[in-house]
């Protein structure tokens, strides 16, 4: 028993070491990622449930590391958050998404809203509101064209100060969206306490609405509650026509997911929007 006990401890340590080494390697490679121009953004369409028109896009970060190849966000974002590097990376995302929005504005797409993911560290940075303002002004964008996606975690971690930062941003006209709603630390008090205007219903609930009455009821309840609070609702992870049709019936405003589009490079968006219109 003693021997197998030691074996388990050893195995556990090896697994921990491997995870720590992985994080260390990623951390090292991330340090030169911005300067090396290894990041790019892809954009996933968010459409009106009623009309099918393109209403927004979510910017999602992609990293092709010179030493590691493609690394998924779920692997490198947590590492960047641990080191605080996410602030610099997040600023790059903000500036790049706004630059791209300025390019689209000049073209056939017209006025579009782009949604970006913002981490707790960024909101806690006293420079954040100023950075947002600069990015909008530099690219001649209306504040309503930018939406910031926050997770419930962000609201918990930062508490009181976040309330005033969000109030300032909402005051400017920037949209604030609560991402992955219902997965983590949901407290209904957030919905009224913070200045939000959009709720994104997590894929975990959307996934089962066709076959599980419980999921269906839950999504129905989230939509009803969001509507009564005057919030816009976006369903994430919509993968089938059946899911889209149920969500439409339940009164969900916007749809996002592989059924509508994968995340695509910026230069493919105009053609995608054209195809949507003629569909
Ligand atoms: P998220 O914000 O919840 O983004 C949605 C994720 O679901 C994306 O994964 C997207 O590609 C994927 N997705 C979209 N539609 C579907 C679908 O129909 N089915 C399935 N199975 N998946 C779908 P991605 O791009 O790998 O990003 C993962 C997470 O990484 C994001 O989750 C977000 O939390 C984080 N992330 C991505 N970009 C950024 C960024 O610029 N800044 C920060 N702080 N986090 C980011
Ligand atoms: Ca998001
Ligand atoms: Ca999400
Ligand atoms: Ca997520």
TrEMBL record:
Coiled coil (UniProt feature): none
Domain EAL residue range list: 23-277
Keywords: Membrane, Transmembrane, Transmembrane helix
Name this protein carries in UniProt: EAL domain-containing protein
Residues of the full protein shown: 452 to 730 of 740
């Amino acid at each position: 028993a003693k021997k197998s006990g030691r074996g388990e401890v050893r195995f556990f340590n090896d697994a921990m070491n491997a995870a720590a080494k992985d994080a260390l390697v990623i951390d090292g490679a991330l340090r030169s990622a911005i300067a090396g121009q290894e990041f790019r953004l892809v954009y996933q369409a968010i459409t009106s449930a009623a009309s099918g028109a393109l209403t927004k896009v979510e910017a999602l970060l992609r990293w092709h590391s010179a030493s590691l190849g493609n690394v998924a966000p779920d692997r490198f974002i947590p590492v960047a958050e641990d080191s605080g590097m996410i602030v610099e990376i997040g600023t790059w995302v903000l500036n790049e998404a706004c630059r791209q929005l300025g390019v689209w504005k000049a073209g056939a797409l017209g006025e579009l809203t782009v949604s970006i993911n913002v981490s707790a560290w960024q909101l806690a940075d006293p420079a954040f509101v100023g950075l947002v303002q600069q990015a909008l002004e530099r690219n001649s964008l209306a504040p309503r064209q930018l939406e910031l996606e926050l997770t419930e975690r962000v609201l918990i971690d930062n508490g009181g100060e976040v309330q005033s930062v969000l109030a300032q941003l909402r005051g400017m006209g920037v949209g604030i969206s609560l991402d992955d709603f219902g997965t983590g630390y949901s407290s209904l008090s957030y919905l009224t306490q913070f200045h939000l205007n959009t709720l994104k219903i997590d894929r975990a609930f959307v996934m089962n609405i066709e076959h599980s009455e419980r999921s269906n009821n839950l999504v129905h309840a989230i939509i009803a509650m969001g509507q009564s609070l005057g919030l816009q609702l976006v369903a994430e992870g919509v993968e089938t026509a059946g899911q889209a049709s149920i969500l439409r019936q339940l009164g969900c405003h916007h749809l996002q997911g592989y059924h509508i589009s994968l995340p695509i490079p910026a230069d493919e968006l105009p053609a995608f929007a054209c195809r949507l219109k003629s569909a």
